Amino acid sequence: MTALSSRMATLTLNPALDLTVHADGWRQGQVNSGQSFQLDAGGKGVNVAAFLADWGLRVTATGLLGDSNPAAFEALFRAKGVHDAFVRVPGATRVGVKLVDGEAQETTDINLPGLAATPQALAELGSRLAALGGDHGTFVLAGSLPPGVEADFYARLTGTLRAAGCFVALDTSGAALTAALAAQTLPDLVKPNIHELEAALGRSLTHEAEVLEAARDLLRRGASLVAVSQGERGALLVSAQGAVRAVPPRVRITSTVGAGDAMVAGLVSAHADGLDLAGAARRATAFSLGAITRLGAHLPSRTDLDAFAAQVVIETLRQVEKT
């Protein structure tokens, strides 16, 4: 790999402090007892940066971060060896509450709104991204857009970064994903879940053939890999090499927080290592399994990840051309 392509950056415009509360058997509308809680620096791009750093890659994390409560983020970046290039903005970074029911193996999310992005903050962030583009070959654009950021922000940034020769991965939803998939230049890697993809395309994808055709249409328009996560059914990955489904083994879930972010990190690391489609599917699923077996954005050892990867079932899917 070149010096340019070996460095990675993640962008998180709407980070959050994740308050994870373990309350087995909790009931809505009742007084519940919790067993434990944990506060972690989070946000999709922050999590991806942490996972990539755990794998041993050189990572820079940037975005917008409230200047009144950055300590947890700064501690995470120091511990992981992630370069902190966040733009500090006035105010407090939002809190996201995760209610984990270990008995039901379910996590309920309550996401509070983020800080509004001012034109000044976005201008400073633009300058920082331009500087990073000079020596970072991979960019991961992840998470929701805060107030003050136009829906086509990721779409425009993708065009700029890809024109500069960077590999771009995108993991977002809603209007931001719709705009990105409608743009002239698509990201190299797109990782929606099935519901996000349906919403972005404006149609239901009931059958596997419909999902495959939607993914292949994105490939024809410039994407190189489309990964559609489908919960316990696993993930469907489509590239020029073909299409596969990665079916994970059953594991004891500690928390589902960050599982999708770990999958993105696995796919990005697989791209960096030049893995084929099946290898990328195993790597990404192993990262996701590693994430859900522990709290916070932390991967287990490579030995454990290799063990997870070996248990992933890869199914090759037939793609039918349109007539």
Automatic annotation (TrEMBL):
Reaction equation(s) it catalyzes: beta-D-fructose 1-phosphate + ATP = beta-D-fructose 1,6-bisphosphate + ADP + H(+)
Keyword Nucleotide-binding: yes
Top-level taxon in the UniProt lineage: Bacteria
Pfam families cross-referenced by the UniProt entry: PfkB (PF00294)
Enzyme Commission number, as recorded: 2.7.1.56
PROSITE patterns per UniProt: PFKB_KINASES_1, PFKB_KINASES_2
Alphabetized InterPro entries for the sequence: 1-PFruKinase, Carboh/pur_kinase_PfkB_CS, PfkB_dom, Ribokinase-like, Tagatose/fructose_Pkinase
Keywords carried by this UniProt record: ATP-binding, Kinase, Nucleotide-binding, Transferase
UniProt keyword Translocase, yes or no: no
Domain Carbohydrate kinase PfkB: 26-301
SUPFAM superfamilies: Ribokinase-like
Record's function text: Catalyzes the ATP-dependent phosphorylation of fructose-l-phosphate to fructose-l,6-bisphosphate.
Family statement drawn from the similarity comment of this UniProt entry: Belongs to the carbohydrate kinase PfkB family.
Name of the protein in its database record: 1-phosphofructokinase
Biological classification of the source: Bacteria, Thermotogati, Deinococcota, Deinococci, Deinococcales
